[in-house]
Specification:
mainly beta; 5% helix; 141 residues; 39% strand; Deoxyuridine 5'-Triphosphate Nucleotidohydrolase, Chain A
Length: 141
């Protein structure tokens, strides 16, 4: 498979896999931005992607940014038909402002196959062992 990527800015950094067996390619910031505590930022990458039909780009957190700095990605679906700039939305859930510098890793993107099942309205669903058991219904252990 091939993912075509267009640089919208000459200073944009192409995504890269840190290790040969990584699921996600690292996505880099085009510019510096401060994300204040409790606020969101939309980080430019300077890149546009051509994701093949039948696939989707899913934008996920970088584990170090999430666990060490409380940064969480949002709005993480890049459809195959989208050709605009990839911008990474991040919310700062920590108690301290965070400065993202140019060329910092800000997210990772996984490319995954999708299916579009037929939507069918029904009046009843089949029974299952779990049934309607929701949050906490399986207990702590």
């Amino acid at each position: 498979m091939e993912i075509k990527i267009k640089k919208l800015d000459v200073e944009a950094k192409l995504p890269a896999y840190a290790h040969s067996d990584d699921a996600g390619m690292d996505i880099f910031a085009l510019e510096e931005m401060t994300i204040k505590t409790g606020e969101r930022g939309r980080i430019k990458t300077g890149l546009a992607f051509e994701i093949p039909d039948g696939f989707v780009g899913l934008v996920w957190d970088k584990s170090g940014l999430a666990s060490n700095h409380g940064l969480k990605t949002m709005a993480g679906v890049v459809d195959s038909g989208y050709r605009g700039e990839l911008q990474v939305v991040i919310i700062n859930l920590s108690s301290e402002d965070y400065v993202i510098k140019k060329n910092d890793k800000v997210a990772q993107m996984l490319i995954q196959k999708i299916e579009q099942p037929e939507i069918k309205e029904v009046s009843e669903l089949s029974d299952s062992v779990r049934g309607e058991g929701g949050f906490g219904s399986t207990g702590k252990r």
